[in-house]
Design brief:
The protein contains 6 helices and 3 strands. With about 110 residues, it is mainly alpha-helical. The protein has a 3-stranded parallel β-sheet.
Length: about 110
């Protein structure tokens, strides 16, 4: 299975938060799954960190890639094919980060 983690899911996972269910934790840790974190999530975290809305033990540009690698989560870059998916996405949700994550997930399902 291929998983693209939402920003909060990634943060809960790396912090061991009880808000992340054991089922999700096990799914992320399953070596048979390909797990990805979008650079969009890193972008979102940096903005929230700068606004004082996200506390981290280290600066996000150091801490988040280190945690991603520690947990063997692959990075997913933003590409043009994903961005153009925005035109077809209904306006049900206005968070620009989540919208782009949805588009990346849609594009990846077409790509694989």
């Amino acid at each position: 299975m291929k998983l693209l983690l939402d920003t909060h899911i990634f943060l809960w996972f790396i912090s061991g938060s009880p808000q992340l269910s054991a089922t999700f934790r096990d799914t992320i840790q399953n070596p048979n799954n390909d797990v990805y974190l979008s650079v969009v999530s890193l972008w979102e975290c940096i903005i929230k960190y700068q606004l004082g809305k996200l506390l981290l033990p280290e600066s996000p540009e150091i801490y988040l890639p280190k945690q991603r690698e520690r947990h063997q989560i692959d990075s997913l870059a933003v590409d043009e094919a994903s961005v153009v998916q925005l035109i077809n996405l209904p306006s049900l949700h206005r968070d620009p980060f989540d919208r782009l994550l949805i588009c990346q997930a849609l594009q990846q399902t077409r790509h694989f």
